[in-house]
Amino acid sequence: MSPSPIDRATLDLQYNARATVPDIAPMLHDYASISAQARNTLPCALNVAYGTHPDETLDIFPARGERPGPVLIYLHGGYWRLLSKDDSSFMAPTLTQAGITVVAVNYSLAPAVTLDRIVDQTRRAVAWVHRHIAQHHGDGRRLIIAGSSAGGHLAGMVLASGWQQSYGMDAAAIAGAVLLSGLYDLTPLVETHINEWMRLSLEDARRNSPLFALPKDHGAPILISYGSNETAEFKRQSQDYLAAWRAQGFQGEYVDMPNTNHFDLVLHLNRLDSPLVQKLLKLLTLPR
């Protein structure tokens, strides 16, 4: 689906996720409080460094059970300028019980750093997990990359081709991805209020757009979803990326999540009966 020309005011509204809910505060509170409870009650390794900068840390929640679990690596949203790993382990109670090791990734935030830097950090975090997660009861050969909103974008940049070898990463270790309310073509954002803190040139935006960096060979199965009340542009972005993924010959599935919004959708990863979790568990049983 190709976008039609949109004026600046309409673009701003279309990419204003906060305007789609009456109040974002209760959902941000849930992110933080459920994540804090997970850290306080579950076995975990906190503030594990994957790089040298103080922002470059992980929280790791090992899978329950005797066997090392597949690993869900979660990249948080916040339009690249808000939130942290401390808000990002709310799915750990359900997923660790289901036999999945959970890793919540921290990264530096805009405008203090560029998007190129954030993409580099998330890729280094994934490569670190691939190499070291066996020490934390995880299977580094079965990685699920997950993210919401800006985190969905970052997950798409992890799925992109061309970076793995220089980071010591085996692309075949990525067993799948869960992409929620993501942004896959950043070029429209150059003309919006978001660029007040992102400071992207058109070249920057295109270079960091997953839609223009699809893998050529290895494309793991992906699950894509978005809130039922999202704007037309957020929905289009996901639909376009899913269509492009399938056009490459890769497996991709849209997961319908009625009665959800841009912010509470991701909390369904902490519900075993959620279609998202059920589809994720099914994805992990697929032959590789």
Number of domains: 1
How helix-rich are the residues, as a percent range?
Answer: 25-40%
Write out the strand line-up for the largest beta sheet, numbering strands in chain order: 1-2-4-3-5-6-7-8
Mean pLDDT: 96
Number of helical segments with 4 or more residues: 9
Shape field = globular
Rg over CA atoms, rounded to whole Å, is 17 Å
Report the CATH topology name. Answer: Rossmann fold
Looking at the overall shape, the CATH architecture is: 3-Layer(aba) Sandwich
For the record, what is the CATH homologous superfamily label?
Alpha/Beta hydrolase fold, catalytic domain
> How do the SSEs run, as a string of H and E?
HHEEEHEHEHEHHEHEH
Strand percentage, roughly?
15-25%
Distance between the termini: 31 Å
Low-confidence stretches: none
* The CATH top-level class label: Alpha Beta
How many strand segments?
A: 8
Main β-sheet description = 8 strands, mixed
Question: In brief, what are we looking at here?
Answer:
The protein is an alpha/beta fold.
What does this structure look like?
With 288 residues, this protein is α/β, with parallel strands linked by helices. The chain has one domain: Rossmann fold, CATH 3.40.50. Helices cover 32% and strands 16% of the residues. It is built from nine helices and eight strands. It has helices spanning 8-14, 25-41, 92-97, 115-132, 150-159, 195-198, 202-207, 232-247, 275-283, and strands spanning 45-49, 57-61, 69-75, 101-105, 138-148, 174-180, 222-225, 252-254. The chain has an eight-stranded mixed sheet with strand order 1-2-4-3-5-6-7-8, with helices on both faces. Strand 7 (222-225), helix 8 (232-247) and strand 8 form a beta-alpha-beta unit. The mean pLDDT is 96.
